[in-house]
Amino acid sequence: MFNRSGRAGNYAYTVSRVKAKKALLLKEEDYNKMLQMSVPEISRYISESGYQKEMTDLAGRIEGIDLVEHATYVNMAKVFSSILGASQGELNTMVEAYLEKWDAWNLKVILRGKSYGLDADGIREDLVPAGSLRSESLEKLLALDNVDDIIANYCKMVHVIIPQDVLTSFKASENLGEIEDYLDKNYYVKLLKSIDPSSRPTRMFQDYVRMEIDIRNLETILKLKAEGIYGETVMKYIIPGGKQIDNRLAVQLANAETVSAAVSDLSQLDFYETIKDLVEKDAVSIRDIVTEMKKYEIAAAKKFSHMYPLSVVPVLDYMIHKEIEVGNIRTISRGIESGLDTETIKGLLVI
After folding, report:
1. Are 254 and 234 in contact (CB under 8 A)?
2. Cβ of 254: how many Cβ atoms within 10 Å?
3. Residue 40 burial (CB count, 10 A)
4. Cα three-residue angle 209-213-219, rounded to 5 degrees
5. Which residues have a Cβ under 8 Å from the Cβ of 244 and sit 6 or more positions away?
6. What is the CA radius of gyration of the chain?
7. What is the average pLDDT across 57-71?
8. With b meaning 16 or more CB within 10 Å and e meaning fewer, what string describes 110-122?
9. Which of 259, 262, 257, 327 is nearest to 297 (CA)?
10. What are the two backbone dihedrals, phi and then psi, of residue 151, each rounded to the nearest 5 degrees?
11. How far apart are CA 186 and CA 37, in angstroms?
């Protein structure tokens, strides 16, 4: 998949662009201000902080929390697409491959929305056309009512084949998780296979992706453990290719019946110190652990971007921070709309 023609990519130009964009992202003090606002006030605030065009374009059709949520996703998709359009050579190929995660995201949103009986407008609010599927393709999927037709058309659009046993299991259980788990695995397997680590920029990309897989796998293991699920059942959800959590360690972590029983194995991980205090508590909060691991992931991307300024990592670093910003805006808005207290909402933010 990666360009073999020797075109390394316009790293200096693209990195300069994303650094300028990163400087405009919301800061902790912005979130603190938003926590004291109503949803209409948040709408006005983010309009003055980079989301004006999307808020204006959508204001005539939707309002309130729906406006905030839809506008932030539309903005993020446009920003990511502009970065992809500005990049060249192997850099463009890496960014394109990384952004394909949004194709899987969008199929999940459409399938979940259809299963809950949402109309097209309700589903559209959570779509992020930042992958290979643009808005026109997503609209075609939205127009379909039959789940089998949606999956079949999606597979044709993105050139993916979902194994028959996965489809059969899904039809028997009507559990969308069967499809979603396969999509997640397929994305990372395909992404890793696409990387030619013969240059420093591509090696950095590979290292980052493998670390991301470790974090996703540990999140999965801990969440299932909290539900009383462990052992062989957990292993079918594990994404191959992690940097530290290989199959052996994954089995050990999966077999531990509680988080406490997994501590000795967890201590082997580079990011253990980040979650040490949380996993060793009597009352373990999986949500808090997942939040801390996300912060570790952000810090790692930032560290790599400083170490290797002319690589794909600073571009990923910005995209991760942009995604976090959008998530924080939506979390604050939803929390306020739901009547949650400020401290509870603040605990849900990734800062």
Report:
1. yes
2. 24
3. 13
4. 145
5. 211, 214, 268, 269, 270
6. 21
7. 93
8. bbebbeeebeeee
9. 327
10. -65, -45
11. 41
Cα 231 to Cα 78, 225, 255, 285: the distances in Å are 42, 9, 4, 21
How far is 349 from 351, CA to CA, in rounded Å?
6
Give pLDDT tens digits for 113-144.
999 999 998 899 899 999 999 999 999 999 99
Note the Cα 321 to chain centre separation in Å.
11
Cα 208–chain centre separation: 14
Distance between CA atoms of residues 15 and 8, nearest Å:
14
- State the chain's mean pLDDT as an integer: 92
pLDDT in tens, 275-296: 999 988 878 888 888 889 988 9
Cα dist. 180→44, 110, 209, 289 in Å?
Answer: 36, 12, 19, 23
Exposure b/e, 6-25, CB count within 10 A at least 16 = b: eebbbbeebbebbeebbeee
**Nearest alpha carbon to residue 205 among 1, 54, 347, 31:** 1
Can you give the pTM of this predicted structure?
A: 0.90
- Residue tagged 């259980």 (tokens): 173
DSSP classification of residue 262: G
Integer Cα distance of 301 and 243 in angstroms: 15
Question: Two tokens at 343?
Answer: 């401290």
What are phi and psi for residue 2, nearest 5 degrees? -75, 145
The candidate with the shortest Cα–Cα distance to 108, out of 154, 69, 143, is 154
Inform me whether the pLDDT recorded for 303 exceeds 90: no
**pLDDT tier at 5 (50, 70, 90 boundaries)?**
very low
What tokens does 177 get?
Answer: 């998780």
- CA nearest to 333, candidates 17, 18, 13, 51: 51
Q: Span 308-325, mean pLDDT?
A: 92
Non-local (6+) Cβ contacts of 333 within 8 A are 39, 42, 65, 68, 69
